[in-house]
Write a structure and sequence with these properties.
single chain; about 325 residues; alpha/beta; TIM Barrel; Non-ribosomal Peptide Synthetase Peptidyl Carrier Protein, Chain A; two-stranded antiparallel ribbon; 11 strands; binds flavin mononucleotide
Length: about 325
């Protein structure tokens, strides 16, 4: 354990960028907007966070950058994640991302969703390694910041090609690889196969970040010990729980186990999240808040009924009222 603390307290070098935390917040479509990232960063100020994935070709005819690409002026370290299958579009999009403040450019080569893979993006690139190489080269040529790749172990159990793929990405110029230990076919089911992450870590020179099933301090430690990875990336474990990245980071650096977050704290955070979504996105923010509210409402008496009520809110005021009443009940 001492070795792990010593290793995890060292800054991580991604090309010429130095990061003071080895615990990352993953990109999550529909979740990791600026509002959510502000909450994560409050507890994990040094951690790398990622925007939701942005389609490079969608930027071509826009005058202004879309809201999902917006980054706070002082928001670092941050990576804007791009997806597409066209190296030229990705190169151009990467320039816009750097102008917005992105410290690295992450390319999504793991998304399993049909709509994305049918057009040659996301995890379908695992089956097109030459295209994936061209993408990494084009982006590395277009910008001065490091290019990183986030991918899966393969398309299916019969097509696990990550060892070859990872080496190719490194050779093409990727400065870090984040590996989600599932196949495309698995989607988000089954367990993440950390053994493949260990194998990839053994053959790459650039940092390897482990992803998949990191839901607690314990799982993060186990994953780091089993894989030897350079860091971990949290994903679904942060839904309704923006404290997770900070908790793991703190434990890895100091050995201090986090104090349990009380349900009142969680609901206060939910309320703040709701208000901030309203301020940032208006009505659309209220709609999007419903799923977040459901994620916050877990594990305490009356959580189910509260989830139900919050899943129907039409206004920020009504949402806050409902949460305040629930906090009252929990305190009494
Ligand atoms: C709702 C949702 C949205 C996601 N959006 C993205 C995304 O935009 N980019 C990406 O690289 N991965 C995305 N992912 C995948 C996660 O970043 C992560 O790789 C995956 O959930 C595995 O980690 P976990 O088992 O800890 O959840 C998404 C996953 C979920 C559940």
């Amino acid at each position: 354990m001492f070795d792990l603390h010593a290793r995890m307290s060292q800054p991580l070098k991604i090309g010429n960028v130095e990061i003071k935390s080895r615990v990352f917040q993953s990109p999550l479509s529909g979740v990791t907007d600026l509002v959510f990232r502000r909450l994560v960063r409050r507890y994990a100020p040094n951690s790398m966070t990622y925007t939701e994935m942005v389609q490079a070709s969608s930027l071509k005819h826009l005058q202004d950058i879309p809201q999902i690409m917006e980054v706070d002026a002082d928001e670092h370290p941050i990576s804007i994640q791009l997806f597409d299958c066209r190296p030229d579009f990705l190169g151009e999009a990467a320039k816009l991302a750097v102008a917005e403040g992105s410290d690295t450019i992450d390319i999504n080569m793991g998304c399993p969703v049909n709509k994305i893979t049918r057009k040659g993006g996301g995890s379908s690139l695992l089956r097109e390694p030459e295209v994936a190489e061209s993408i990494v080269k084009a982006v590395a040529n277009a910008v001065d910041v490091p290019v990183t790749v986030k991918t899966r172990i393969g398309w299916s159990d019969d097509e696990i090609n990550i060892l070859d793929f990872a080496r190719r990405m490194q050779d093409a110029g990727a400065q870090m690889l984040t590996l989600h230990g599932r196949t495309r076919k698995q989607g988000y089911t089954g367990t993440a196969r950390w053994d493949w992450i260990r194998r990839v870590k053994e053959i790459l020179d650039v940092p390897v970040i482990a992803n998949g099933d990191i839901t607690s301090v314990e799982s993060a430690v186990r994953c780091l010990e089993e894989t030897g990875a350079d860091g971990v990336m949290c994903s679904r474990g942060t839904l309704g729980y923006p404290f997770l990245v900070g908790e793991i980071d703190r434990f890895l650096k100091t050995g201090e186990m986090p104090e349990p977050v009380t349900f009142v704290d969680r609901l206060s955070c939910a309320k703040e999240h709701l208000q901030a979504l309203w301020e940032y996105k208006g009505e659309r923010g209220i709609q999007q808040s419903r799923k977040h509210m459901a994620w916050y409402c877990k594990g305490f008496p009356g959580a189910g009924a509260l989830r139900d009520e919050l899943s129907r809110i039409e206004s920020v005021d009504r949402g806050c009222e409902i949460i305040d009443a629930a906090i009252e009940r929990l305190l009494n």
